[in-house]
Write a structure and sequence with these properties.
Distance between the termini of chain B: 62 Å
Number of helices of chain B: 3
Structural class of chain A: alpha/beta
Strand order of the largest sheet of chain A: 7-6-5-8-9
Radius of gyration of chain B: 21 Å
Structural class of chain B: mainly alpha
Helix content of chain A: 25-40%
Distance between the termini of chain A: 52 Å
CATH architecture of one domain in chain A: 2-Layer Sandwich
CATH class of one domain in chain A: Alpha Beta
Shape of chain B: flat
Largest interface: A-B, 66 and 47 residues
CATH superfamily of one domain in chain A: Ribosomal protein S11/S14
Order of helices and strands of chain A: HHEEEEEEEHHEHE
Strand content of chain A: 15-25%
Oligomer: heterodimer
Number of strands of chain B: 1
CATH topology of one domain in chain A: Nucleotidyltransferase, domain 5
Number of helices of chain A: 5
Shape of chain A: elongated
Strand content of chain B: under 5%
Radius of gyration of chain A: 24 Å
Mean pLDDT of chain A: 78
Largest sheet of chain B: none
Order of helices and strands of chain B: EHHH
Chain lengths: 213, 90
């Protein structure tokens, strides 16, 4: 019996090792404490009031998690450069200097994805396409499928007009962010670099009040 | 756009290697999340009331202490200079 107890203890330890993937380790017995349900309502539907807020027992759908966000990617030391430096703006790509390449801007919001092609300064808009223009309406605009299809359409039009090599600038974290990148890749556009241009402030003006669902 | 002119396409930028856009994107995302940029962005979408801030800070403190101690304990148990890492489990 003692042996089995020890085995159990060791087993729980090994489990905790597996759990310790993220920032910290939470022992499994803390996570899976089971209580006997007495109420009739199913756990998923259960709601209760806290102050003047109605809270569901099962937590609401969280923000979109970007692929690669919760994993650590180790970059091998290639002969090529992975990050830009002082000489990158003058590096040649497809017969053009890096700072003269056209820019594809992607703005992905929770409800839509807007893509536009501009010149190297980002001033002169050349093409614009959004999931709404593509024919998706209402909630379907804000999906990754809509973004991907939009990106494929825009990418094909770009290739027809001779915009082969571009830089990508992405703004906002929405469901369309990943889909847009995939779409450009499928269309065959040569993407030289990916830049994140999300507006993030550490002392912002007061944001809007929280949504009450 | 959000970035200053001089830093555009220099900061928060990953060059694509061998046309492997997916990999570059994953690297960019992992860097942004490690630096806490995504977290800050998500937190500042809506106003966080002072009570919520206090609760969050307290929770983070407790979690950091717990994690530190737990990591230390696990490191101690799993230290490598023993012949049998799990005594009694055979």
């Amino acid at each position: 019996m003692i042996l089995s107890t020890l085995q159990f203890a060791a087993g729980s330890l090994t489990k905790s090792m597996i759990v310790s993937s993220k920032h910290c380790t939470i022992l499994p017995y803390l996570k899976h404490t089971s209580f006997r349900d007495i109420h009739i309502t199913s756990n998923i539907m259960k709601q209760f009031r806290m102050g003047n807020q109605k809270i569901r027992v099962v937590e609401e759908k969280r923000d979109v998690i970007m692929p690669g966000e919760d994993t650590i990617t180790i970059s091998e030391s290639d002969s090529k450069k992975l990050f830009p430096d002082a000489s990158t703006p003058y590096q040649m790509f497809d017969g053009k200097a890096y700072n003269q390449l056209d820019i594809v801007n992607v703005k992905s919001t929770p409800n839509n994805t807007i893509m536009s092609l501009t010149d190297y300064r980002g001033r002169k808009g050349i093409m614009l396409r959004s999931a709404g223009v593509e024919g998706f309406k209402n909630t379907r605009k804000g999906t990754n499928i809509a973004a991907q299809q939009t990106a494929v359409t825009l990418g094909r039009r770009m290739l027809e007009n001779g915009f082969r090599t571009v830089r990508l600038r992405i703004q906002g974290i929405g469901p369309g962010r990943m889909g847009a990148i995939k779409g450009f890749q499928l269309a065959g556009v040569n993407i030289v670099s990916i830049t994140d241009d999300t507006r993030v402030s550490y002392n912002p003006p007061r944001p809007r009040k929280q949504r009450r669902i | 756009m959000g970035m200053f002119k001089h830093a555009q396409f220099l900061s928060r930028t990953v060059m694509v290697q061998n046309n492997n856009v997916e990999k570059a994107n994953r690297l960019l995302n992992s860097i942004l999340s490690k630096e806490g940029i995504f977290e800050q962005y998500r937190r500042t979408r809506y106003y966080e009331k002072p009570t919520q801030t206090r609760r969050r800070i307290n929770y983070e403190k407790c979690k950091a202490i717990y994690c530190e101690d737990m990591t230390r304990k696990i490191q101690f148990i799993l230290r490598k200079n023993r012949e049998n890492p799990f005594p009694g489990s055979e």
